[in-house]
Design a protein that fits this description.
The chain has about 350 residues and is mainly beta. Strand 4 and strand 5 form a beta hairpin. It is built from three helices and 18 strands.
């Protein structure tokens, strides 16, 4: 029946794509889609406009009959507010599909904020910014049109027969209304040079805990999520840098920690091109409160002047290997940054 079917879909949502026992799916490359990590990342880049498209897929191979997919597009920019401060604007579209038939969640958000210069260092050294930002979006949750229920299993043919009555009050169409969702964040950054700096921030997602149920007479809500992120860039040699990041989230009773340490190689004869490579380690909290090592991600990013192309492959560890049926995931990111003129440039840490 519908309750059993919904529990199954939520189990897949929790254990398969998300790689954490929470309600929101997450990318393995946390900082490649920064607006999902903290809205206050808006405007905090050296260019004038930043646009990022990211896609994550987890499926049965080679049949590809069962797919979990996460897609997000984010764009942000900033405008002068006085001599040294900026207004920031951002837009974000995200969608994820879980299982077969698909549990689908879609969201469209717009946001704004303010980028305040706290300290202007000489020649960019010791430059500090405080960024405040919010997102207001519309969320929708639904089941795909190919959804089937236990009443539609036909023992005579040994498979599902969608022409049979589902036995459900709403037929087989379940979809929530588009409901408002509010997020906000704050982020501090300090840059000592072009290749050295740190940042740290906190954000709240689903502040209003929107109702996401598509089943009549239920009150299922998206739990409030808190995230903490800190990172930076340090020089190891003249041409080699490390960009460590730690990301923590808690949503309801569930928690996750991600730690990444990509290396960036940029020889002088490469001009504005660079190569990043490194690992991400993801720890999750199980339902019994115990922590376990859930996933390891291999990441490579090609920086080609104003374009970044990121590729990642994640391998689930036990118990996620069991709950996701040993499915690993592939992720790709494409980021474009429009260069800023002199008046619109800022000095900030690289993410």
């Amino acid at each position: 029946m519908i309750i059993q079917r919904t529990r199954f879909l939520l189990l897949i949502l929790i254990s398969s794509l998300v790689s954490v026992n929470g309600q929101d799916p997450v990318f393995s490359q946390i900082t490649s889609q920064p607006l999902l990590a903290n809205p206050a990342f808006a405007g905090l880049h050296t260019g004038e406009i930043r646009a990022s498209l990211q896609f994550k897929s987890q499926s049965d191979l080679p049949s590809l009959s069962y797919k979990n997919q996460l897609l997000a597009f984010g764009i942000d920019t900033r405008y002068k507010a006085g001599r040294q401060d900026f207004w920031t604007l951002q837009g974000l579209i995200s969608s994820f599909k879980i299982g077969d038939p698909s549990f689908v969640h879609q969201k469209v958000s717009l946001g704004g904020g303010y980028l305040k210069l706290l300290k202007e260092g000489r020649y960019g050294r010791g430059t500090q910014y405080l960024s405040l930002a919010f997102q207001v979006g519309l969320d929708q949750t639904s089941l795909a049109s190919n959804t089937w229920f236990s009443n539609q299993y036909d023992p005579n043919i040994g498979s599902v027969n969608t022409t049979l009555p589902s036995g459900e009050p709403n037929g087989i169409t379940y979809s929530s209304s588009f409901l408002p969702d509010v997020n906000a964040g704050v982020l501090w950054s300090n840059s000592w040079s072009k290749n050295t700096g740190i940042y740290a921030g906190i954000s709240l997602f689903h502040i209003n805990e929107p109702k996401m149920a598509f089943i009549p007479n239920t009150d299922t809500r998206l739990e409030r999520k808190t995230t903490l992120i800190a990172g930076g860039e340090w020089s190891l040699t003249e041409n080699t840098h490390i960009l460590p990041v730690i990301y923590y989230l808690v949503q309801g009773a569930h928690q996750r920690i991600s730690i990444g340490a990509p290396f960036r190689i940029n020889p002088q004869d490469w001009n504005d091109q660079a190569l990043r490579a490194g690992l991400w380690f993801h720890g999750n909290q199980s339902e019994n409160g115990k922590w376990f090592f859930g996933e390891i991600t291999f990441q490579t990013i090609f920086e080609l002047k104003n374009i970044q192309l990121g590729l990642a492959y994640s391998i689930g560890q036990k118990p996620l290997q069991t709950s996701s049926f040993s499915r690993n995931s592939f992720e790709i990111n494409f980021t474009w940054i429009k260069p800023a003129d002199y008046k619109k440039k800022i000095t900030c840490p690289r993410i």
